[in-house]
Amino acid sequence: MTTLTPLYLLAAEEKSAEVTDWSARISWVLGLAALIALVYWLMRQGWKWRGQLQSDLPELPATPEGFADGGTLLTLSGRYHASTTAGQWLDRIVAHGLGTRSRVELTLGERGLDVVRPGATDFFVPAGALREARLDKALAGKVLPEGGLLVITWAHGDKLIDSGFRSDRAAEHRAWVDAINHLNRTTEGTAR
Fold this sequence. Notes:
This protein has about 190 residues and is α+β, with helices and mostly antiparallel strands.
């Protein structure tokens, strides 16, 4: 059987507990803060570098005058997630602000797609540049449930771009896919 030392004897020992070494602790905190700042700076430099690599992308078209006069087919309020090179869901395009996530108001008309993004660059996709729309689950690091993302493929310059949107009411996505694909077929038929 072991005997337990009474607490008052332990407290009476001559050696007390180690005192915190504040200089070592502050050094560790400063070192960790410097590491976090370095990682943030490297991420920012990578973002800028990617933008320079994509600098050959032409300026985004603005909404033409009288766009609303052509007739509005659909509107959508939700989130803009990103734009990527078509078919490469992780190759984010950051040039001209296309990599900035934001709220979005989409308007589809006979003349094209108007993308209004508060706090980010607005742009317009002419009807002739629309290629297709589909439901997907992932784009540029954003993964959602199956069919939770509306992805619109469009041509800009000599590049095909996938842009991802999520409506505040996901049930609207199917109508958008049908309308854009129908508009694309009628535009192609008129061009021939």
